[in-house]
Amino acid sequence: MINKEILTTKIGSDIPDIDSDYTSFVMALNAARMDERRNQAALMSARLERMADFIFKHKMKWRGVTEILQQEAERIQNEALETL
Predict the structure, then answer these.
(1) Alpha helices in 1-84, H assignment, sequence order
(2) What was the pLDDT predicted at 7?
């Protein structure tokens, strides 16, 4: 039995457009980065609000506020080191 199927080849259209694929990838990556930045900014804003509420509620003096800020800075640094 002879295979008589004829396949057509479209020259040029089967070749992937590398520049287009790369550009799409970079755009998707940048969108994901911006989304992550927005999420991190929202988290930081919420943390600062909670800290301000705590300070106001407890009528803290500047020494107590300084200690809270130092603790928060240490917490952020530890979180950053965990991602390495």
Answers:
(1) 18-57, 62-82
(2) 67
CB 43 within 8 A of CB 34: no
Place of tokens 């301000």: 52
Asked if residues 52 and 45 have their Cβ atoms less than 8 Å apart, the reply is: no
How far, in Å, CA of 72 to CA of 28, rounded?
32
DSSP-derived secondary structure letter, 17 = -
Could you tell me the pTM of the whole model?
A: 0.63
Answer yes or no: are the C-beta atoms of 72 and 47 closer than 8 Å: yes
Q: How far apart are CA 16 and CA 35, in angstroms?
A: 29
